[in-house]
Amino acid sequence: MKYVYWGTTTLLALMMAGSGTLYFVSDTAAQTFAALGFPDYFRVELGVAKIVGAVALVVPLPRSVKEWTYAGFAISIVSAVIAHTAVGDPASAIVPPIVAFGLLVASYISYHRYARAAATPSPATSDA
Hints:
Elements: H1 2-25, H2 27-35, H3 40-58, H4 63-86, H5 95-119
Helix pairs in contact: 1-3, 1-5, 3-4, 4-5
């Protein structure tokens, strides 16, 4: 379970950090935000949030912080699908957020299973 958790979480973090970085350096990203009807400052806010969230997923932080990070990413990803669909973008525009959502779900489920397994003492190490 540890490998599933770290694999999916690393891919998700890279995807979020990469897209967050693109919001600052890509003219195409800025044009996409404008085409979706979002103000330019929202692109900056979301870029910062994605980079901070990506870091929050991979560093040791309290469980509540990780839960909020997963929730924030879920809202962001679902909102991206809705926004692209609402403006009539082609189906190819919603593939990346759907892939990200799949990684998010896999990471979240494996996070809880991994944390539960780490908290449960194994029979070999108990003093029974």
